């Protein structure tokens, strides 16, 4: 495919950026040929209490061992706060913009430091110790970042659960990591609507008798039920807590956090990230990918409940002493200009969001954008799913007024930080391509047999060697870590994504090749939605696939076989959708539910998902090989009754 659209690096960026073409190539070469040398140099950006003994010790064979900077001692919170106090104590660290446009708040590094120390002391007073897991179920309010940093300060492992997840999903995540303490708030607020976080927590805790402490942030002031002996208010505990708390000395390989993510099978897995490599890598990528310069105001619109918020709202930016904006609201409240109003209000220079948001805003036309200034913007970023060139061009032309390079950053919860991305002073852009690997990253494209392909090609995206921010294991289940990522193609990290590489060596991510779907940049396992559906008394069997969706990227398409005697109806369709929503959370609500008297299966009883995907995508003229189908008439029925045409 010829690339007609190339956007060369602007002259001014070549001169001013941290990295230009020459330095990119030099540094990349070195990072691959001499990883020890490269990373020991760049690890100095982090403050270490004691130096490491080995830079890198990793093996993608056998038991899978990934260790970086072993023996090195540090504290992640110290790196985000304490070390900035001398120079930047009075500089803004976090700008918080509330859901309500008239509500905002800023924290300087010193103020943030004091709040974090106080809360660290609160946690200690509640008996939380190094290595304990702390579940955090909070909306996008400053207390979320404060709670995370306080955990890091005392060496507790945080597990943030996105506020959009249901009580059941929360309960699963609390149980899996055996957390004894949960931090939540009365309610969340998004687009003027209240989300009953404390009530959800109460419901979840019915299933988690081990949890003996809940700390509740009073945010909206809504009514909540406080359980005597278990529930305490944040503000009351903070009143008398001292504003000094020495940081715990952590080994580079001590866990920093667990974050649950969906896979192709079973329940979400606890992705475990450790301290040293993660801090080095997230701070380095934050500086170079976003070309962060002292004083810049940087805004990542993600929710901290996802990895994007962990790495690029909290740890990376704060380690760099940046000004990081945290937004509680949504792009269309009070109206579709909100993002750009916030940009103008806080003079944002660097803006990082998801393709789904860009597409939703693009649909509203240019007017809501054009009526704002956006003069402060200099760089735009995207993450979460492939961006279609049309949305890329709109983002570039309308939002950035052809002035701002776009960094399309490819990465995953597992990777901890950005792996494939343009660097704005070094990489000519092609709309829709995440372009090239970051330093130290060795991607390859393989075919189904696992052979590495050369030159321009397409296939499965794998990584040939480890990078510092890579996940270390699945919490409590190292076997699952091995089988999910390293068994199918031994010796390589399997990303689960398909990709193409063009003649210029640019990578184009084509999307998941496993049973994971990406709905508005949120990752879901089709198996999770299926097990929610079959848990309903009316459902005998269910199969779920992704289908193309204009705004969300992928929608959720469910085929449902009812138990005999139950009649399909619109009402039942609605209540099944509501059921899934209650079981997992709003992001998992099916877009389509098709009644299927039977599912297409092979003679050995395996559901033929490939066919279900085609029917859901309305690509019914070419179903591929159907010779192994047990009952071809089942497929004909599904085609006749398909929901998208
Ligand atoms: C999956 C990971 C890491 C941030 C948020 C998502 C898809 C992510 C891109 C991109 C094409 C992308 C992949 C990946 N993805 N960024 N720039 N271009 N696809 O994290 O929930 O772990 O999902 O998101 O399919 O595997 P996640």
Mind sketching the topology for me?
Elements: H1 11-16, H2 21-33, H3 35-42, E1 54-59, E2 65-70, E3 73-74, H4 76-80, H5 85-88, E4 92-97, E5 104-108, H6 109-125, E6 133-137, H7 142-154, E7 157-160, H8 167-177, E8 181-185, E9 188-190, E10 193-195, H9 197-205, E11 213-217, E12 231-233, H10 234-239, E13 250-251, E14 255-261, E15 269-274, H11 276-289, E16 297-300, H12 307-319, E17 323-327, H13 338-346, E18 350-353, H14 355-362, H15 367-370, E19 379-383, H16 389-399, E20 406-409, E21 443-446, E22 452-453, E23 457-463, E24 473-474, H17 478-485, E25 493-501, E26 507-512, E27 516-519, E28 522-525, H18 526-534, E29 539-549, E30 553-562, H19 570-583, E31 592-595, H20 609-616, H21 632-640
Task: Please provide a written account of the structure.
Belongs to the ATP-dependent AMP-binding enzyme family. Keywords: Acetylation, ATP-binding, Ligase, Magnesium, Metal-binding, Nucleotide-binding. With about 650 residues, this protein is of the alpha/beta class. It folds into 2 domains: about 10-500, Rossmann fold; about 520-640, ANL, C-terminal domain (GMP Synthetase, Chain A, domain 3, 2-Layer Sandwich), CATH 3.30.300.30. Helices cover about 30% and strands about 25% of the residues. The protein contains 21 helices and 31 strands. The strands form 8 sheets. It has an 8-stranded mixed β-sheet, sandwiched between helices. It has a 7-stranded mixed β-sheet with strand order 5-4-17-16-18-19-20, sandwiched between helices. The protein is globular, with a radius of gyration of 24 Å. The two termini are about 30 Å apart. The mean pLDDT is about 95. 5'-O-[(S)-butoxy(hydroxy)phosphoryl]adenosine binds near residues 411 and 495.
């Amino acid at each position: 495919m010829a690339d007609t659209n190339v956007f060369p690096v602007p002259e001014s960026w070549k001169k001013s950026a941290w990295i230009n073409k020459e330095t990119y190539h030099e540094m990349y070469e070195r990072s691959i040929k001499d990883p020890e040398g490269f990373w020991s140099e760049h690890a100095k950006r982090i403050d270490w209490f004691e130096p490491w003994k080995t830079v890198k010790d990793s093996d993608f064979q056998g038991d899978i061992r990934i260790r970086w900077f072993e023996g090195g001692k540090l504290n992640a919170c110290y790196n985000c706060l304490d070390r900035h106090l001398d120079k930047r104590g009075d500089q803004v660290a976090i700008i918080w913009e509330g859901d309500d446009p008239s509500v905002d708040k800023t924290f300087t590094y010193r103020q943030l430091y004091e709040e974090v120390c106080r809360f660290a002391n609160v946690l200690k007073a509640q008996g939380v110790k190094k290595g304990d897991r702390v579940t955090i179920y909070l909306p996008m309010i400053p207390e979320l970042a404060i709670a995370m940093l306080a955990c890091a300060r005392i060496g507790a492992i945080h597990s943030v659960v996105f506020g959009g997840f249901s009580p059941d999903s929360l309960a699963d995540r609390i149980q899996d990591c055996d957390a004894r303490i949960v931090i939540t708030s009365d309610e969340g607020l998004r687009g003027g609507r209240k989300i009953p976080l404390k009530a959800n927590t109460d419901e979840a805790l019915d299933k988690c008798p081990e949890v003996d402490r809940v700390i509740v942030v009073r945010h909206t002031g809504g009514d909540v039920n406080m359980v005597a002996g278990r529930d305490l208010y944040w503000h009351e505990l903070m009143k008398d807590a001292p504003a000094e708390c020495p940081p715990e000395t952590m080994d580079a390989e001590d866990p920093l956090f667990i974050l649950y993510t969906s896979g192709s099978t079973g329940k979400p897995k606890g992705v475990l990230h450790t301290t040293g490599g993660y801090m080095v890598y997230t701070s380095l990528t934050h500086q170079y990918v976003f070309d962060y310069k002292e004083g810049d105001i940087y805004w990542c619109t993600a929710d901290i409940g996802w990895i994007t918020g962990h790495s690029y709202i909290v740890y990376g930016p704060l380690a760099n002493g940046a000004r990081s904006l945290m937004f509680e609201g949504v792009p269309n409240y009070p109206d579709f200009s909100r993002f750009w109003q916030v940009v103008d209000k806080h003079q944002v220079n660097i803006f990082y969001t998801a393709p789904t948001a860009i597409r939703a805003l693009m649909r509203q036309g240019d007017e809501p954008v054009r009526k704002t200034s956006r003069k402060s913007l200099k760089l735009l970023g995207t993450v979460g799913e492939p961006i279609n060139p049309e949305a890329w061009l709109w983002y570039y032309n309308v939002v950035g007024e052809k002035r701002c390079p776009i960094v399309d950053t490819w990465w995953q919860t597992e990777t901890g930080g950005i792996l494939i991305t343009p660097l704005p002073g070094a990489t000519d852009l092609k709309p829709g391509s995440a372009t090239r690997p970051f330093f130290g990253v060795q991607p390859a494209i393989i075919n189904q047999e696992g052979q590495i392909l050369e030159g321009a090609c397409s296939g499965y995206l794998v990584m040939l060697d480890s990078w510092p921010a890579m996940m270390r294991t699945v919490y409590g289940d190292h076997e699952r870590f091995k089988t999910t990522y390293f068994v199918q193609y031994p010796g390589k990290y399997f990303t689960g994504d398909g990709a193409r590489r063009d003649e210029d060596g640019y990578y184009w991510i084509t999307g998941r090749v496993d049973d994971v779907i990406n709905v508005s940049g949120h990752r879901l396992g089709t198996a999770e939605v299926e097990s929610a559906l079959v848990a309903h008394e009316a459902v005998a069997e269910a199969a779920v696939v992704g289908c193309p969706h204009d705004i969300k990227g992928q929608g959720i398409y469910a085929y449902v076989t009812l138990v005999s005697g139950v009649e399909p109806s619109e009402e039942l369709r609605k209540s099944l959708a509501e059921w899934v929503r209650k079981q997992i959370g709003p992001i998992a609500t099916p877009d389509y539910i098709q009644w299927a008297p039977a599912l297409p299966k092979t003679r050995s009883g395996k559901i033929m998902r490939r066919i279900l995907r085609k029917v859901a995508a309305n690509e019914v003229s070419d179903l591929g090989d159907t010779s192994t189908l047990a009952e071809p008439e089942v497929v004909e029925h599904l085609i006749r009754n398909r929901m998208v045409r």
